[in-house]
Design a protein that fits this description.
single chain; alpha/beta; seven-stranded mixed beta sheet; 16 helices; 21% strand; globular
């Protein structure tokens, strides 16, 4: 362990009067106000990075607390959706592209030489505290040589934002970071829970995937008459009156995950990371079905019992789940938590659907991932929960892990709001492999939502990595043609597929695939294949706004179970 220290606090933003009131403070370095929030954010973060040793600036992790910005941006978007529906029209593209908080970090990556990991916390009343705890703990444990914490908040009594950033470094000089925790700890997956259009449970999803079935249905959660596509993968879950569907989905998934992890309830010192919801939106609190995307004013961690300082909301578009796994891993390794529960939910709602519709990202037929004739996303509904802990803690309570989270990489970078950058995707895969000490894998579960650009870019990224390590036909497939794209919760079926592949020694196919795209170093699977000796699975998870992630799940081939299409 080492002793961290905080550097000078850099303050800027877009609220001149607020900044003028801070200039007399000697403990702050106050910059001139910027004309736009992205420009001010880049100025402040660049100044904070400049306070670090040159060797650290390019790759230091940045953790941003941005509750106010998320609430404001999301409320504005919801308001536009309500107005459009009241007027009987669809959104215009300019109305749909409300920036997610992570796009501020993307601006930093584009404007400077920084290419580190970026995380966005939007937890009500606790995001800044969580960011500081994370940086302090991770630097103390030697997981990182330095981190930068920043905060974006509304300026009081002024129309604008204040941005503050502070570098956290080791007091006794930079230390080489460790990929594991104290004593070489590793983080394992102890339990998973899943609800999809196939029904409750990972087994129902896995069997449907192996059977090649596609749970397509007509959208009935809301009036979809004005949208291009009304074909979805909708669950049969109906919540009791007055209770949002997202809560009912999460309850079912959490129950399975705890049972699989051998837990009757969440133990003390549990970190809860939630993807797929945003803070309370008081400006649009009466919008129809707003509780499907926003938490209630007195949010209680969705009934988990986790204390507010340990209940995190994370915002990274459709890669939120993987970013949550990365955060949970580090909190476990540096001793900030004993158990971590990462949850995600996608309850069909008009707000997410309207954005995808106006971007023409949805398919008017059905998604065909990795297919030459793919035409877009089929939106799915469901929820997932993953229980993580250190290998030592699992062994102490006699729990046999499902898999080990051996490597993970998350980056917010790449030009454009809705396009996957193949080079950044490849960098994530490369970093995850290096952390795991591997150069190849036995199977890749691709993100592959079925979009024209995204699927092609992902295969290009895989080919880039494959060329470097002489991959020869590494198999890759995707679940999204079967259960749909679960948006912010999209990583959870991928994790369940990976864990089941390791357990059953079977490679799942890609339902809906007819004419696979060509690739040089990977092989796209149309149908499932038995395959002895699977020990490593690479899972990709990408999202709008430059959110990119990849991680490695590993496990032994011992205890193989027999497989058939009949179960």
């Amino acid at each position: 362990m080492t002793h961290p220290k905080a550097g000078a606090v850099i303050v800027g933003g877009t609220a001149p009067r607020s900044l003028d009131g801070l200039r007399s403070r000697r403990d702050l370095s106050v910059l001139a106000a910027g004309e736009t929030l992205p420009a001010a954010f880049v100025d402040v973060l660049s100044a904070a990075l400049d306070r670090l040793p040159a060797a650290l600036r390019g790759g230091v992790p940045v953790v941003m607390a941005a509750t106010d910005y998320c609430v404001s941006a999301t409320s504005q978007y919801v308001g536009r959706c309500v107005e459009a529906e009241a007027g009987g029209r669809r959104l215009r593209p300019s109305e749909a592209m409300t920036p997610e908080p992570a796009q501020l970090i993307q601006e930093l990556a584009e404007a400077s030489g920084w290419n580190g990991t970026g995380h966005v916390l939007i937890s009500p009343r606790a995001a800044t505290l969580q960011a500081v705890r994370w940086a302090w703990g991770a630097v103390s444990a030697g997981l990182h040589e330095a981190m930068v914490v920043c905060e974006v908040v509304r300026a009081a009594h002024e129309d604008g934002y204040r941005v503050a950033a502070v570098p956290v470094t080791a007091a006794d000089g930079a230390r080489a970071p460790r990929t594991g925790g104290p004593g070489g700890s590793s983080v394992v997956v102890s339990g998973t829970g899943l609800v999809t259009a196939f029904g409750d449970g990972g087994t129902a999803f896995w069997q449907g995937l192996l059977d090649g079935r596609r749970e397509l249905s007509e959208l009935t959660r809301f009036d979809a008459s004005r949208f291009r596509s009304r074909t979805v993968c909708q669950t049969r879950v109906e919540a009791p009156p007055g209770r949002p569907t997202r809560r009912a989905l999460l309850d079912r998934a959490r129950s399975e995950a705890l049972r699989e992890a051998g837990l009757d309830e969440l133990p003390g010192r549990t970190l809860l990371v939630s993807a797929g919801v945003v803070p309370h939106l008081p400006q649009v609190g009466d919008a129809p079905r707003i509780d499907e995307i926003a938490v209630e004013p007195d949010w209680d961690g969705d009934g988990s019992g986790v204390a507010p300082p340990d209940a995190v909301l994370m915002a990274h578009a459709c890669a939120s789940g993987a970013f949550g796994l990365a955060m949970a891993r580090e909190w476990l390794l540096c001793g900030l938590a004993d158990t971590a529960v990462v949850t995600g939910v996608s309850s069909l709602n008009a707000y997410d659907y309207a954005c995808l519709d106006v971007l023409r990202a949805t398919s008017t037929t059905a998604a065909r991932p990795f297919d030459e004739d793919r035409s877009g996303v089929t939106v799915g509904e469901g929820a997932g929960v993953i229980v993580l802990e250190t290998a030592e803690r699992a062994a102490a309570r006699g729990q046999t892990p499902l898999a080990t989270l051996s490597g993970i990489s998350c980056r917010v970078a790449g030009q454009g709001i809705s396009r996957l950058n193949a080079h950044i995707g490849a960098a994530c895969m490369r970093d995850a492999l290096a952390m795991a000490g591997l150069t190849t894998v036995d199977y890749v579960h691709g993100h592959a939502p079925g979009t024209r650009q995204g699927d092609e870019a992902e295969l290009l990224a895989l080919d880039q990595v494959g060329a470097e390590h002489d991959w020869r036909g590494v198999p890759v497939s995707s679940y999204k043609g079967a259960a749909g794209h679960l948006l912010h919760a999209s990583v959870f079926p991928g994790v369940v597929a990976a864990v089941r592949a390791l357990r059953h020694q079977v490679l799942p196919g890609t339902p809906g695939l007819r004419k696979p795209l060509d690739a040089r170093h990977v092989r796209v699977l149309r149908d499932p294949e038995p395959c002895d000796g699977i020990r490593s699975v690479l899972v990709n998870n990408f999202g709008f706004g430059g959110n990119n992630a990849a991680f490695l799940l590993t496990g032994g081939a011992a205890g193989r179970m027999e497989w058939s299409t009949d179960g």
